[in-house]
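Q: Here's a chain of 439 amino acids. Please give me its 3D structure as tokens.
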Amino acid sequence: MINKLKLAALGLFLGVTGTAQEVEFIEYTLDNGLDVILHKDNSAPVVTTSVMYHVGAKDENPERTGFAHFFEHLLFEGTKNIPKGEWFKIVSSNGGSNNANTSDDRTYYYEIFPSNQLELGLWMESERMMHPVINQQGVDTQNEVVKEEKRLRVDNAPYGNILAAVKENLYEKHPYRWATIGSMDHLDAATLEEFRAFNEKFYVPNNATLVVAGDIEIEKTKEMIKDYFGPIEKGEPVVKESFVEEPITQEIEAKYHDPNIQIPAIVLAWRTPSMKERDAYVLDMISSVLSDGKSSRLYKKLVDDQKQALQIGAFNIAQEDYGQYVVFGLPLGETKLDTLVAEVDEEIEKLQTELISQREYEKLQNKFENRYVNSNSSVAGIASSLATYQQLYGNTDLINEEIDIYRSITREEIRDVAKKYLNENQRLKLEYLPKESEQ
């Protein structure tokens, strides 16, 4: 058992107003392999119970994509002791709220309850893990739910397929190449036995992290966790397959046609290292320099000053195995897509050859300090962060230490990392076009 007692207050950094305490937590592992993290905060009578399973879209069969996201919905259908359709009623009638989300790397379920309902939250999550009811009726019901979600958020949403178009061109081998929501044809073709096998493989205690954060008593909470989660049988070891992509050495040119848009877009994307690498943190800062706020370089130049873009953004999408660094732009008026590309390239070249100013650097540090304070401002946010750092980074202490990584990044590193990754011959250039356009 590791006991993390960290209560030293952080001082103000570079003029940031407000303070944040380091997050105190305790972590240990049950005999069945379930990792447990407890965070006590008695400042408000609220508690978050959450479970993160180390399964995402990348763990799917290429012929059965969408399973992880499907299970995000399916595991609310009911359990041996929670009848179909009753999950949300139980939560709301006891003053709580709940939700779930899925990424390429993990699936996360959580409830927020008044702290006197802690035991209820633990019971419900243990029921989801131990006694899920996976039958044809539930599969059929959630199949329609997922199809409607895909229609609303992807198929009929303007620019809804941008990330999918990026991923399918950036990756050849890695399962990041398909969208998290997956293929509806794959889900239609799947058998009940395949869904049950997926559950038995991945939704087991030795592939999960339980976090309880908020107004709790540690020893009492440990006893409840032992009672509800201890009897759950350990699953077979989950072996993760590794996929290595060859470096991109020549610009990839691609087009995608979207019937839901009228204004074309340009997307530049680079494959970048794992979020666990220091360079990924530097890329976070580069994206902030380029497009975070109206005073950022790309926004000020292309939107405000030159009136060439309706919208411009640079995003570092950090993931467990690889990341994607994406620049997205919508042209204004008669501006050509290639013009936006040239202007973006000019700003990236400046980052690659010149140090950002000291004033810009201090502003950047202020932004990341504020993000850190805000990320630890609620027990729900802390619970999510604790699970993420423990499961995906393998270092729960990062909840307190990650800000020091950002603080230590130098102007020289920003220049050097931009030069290392953001080169024309290492990228995808995607023209995202209206259906009838061939611009």
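Q: Can you summarize the key feature?
A: The chain is about 40% helix and 20% strand.
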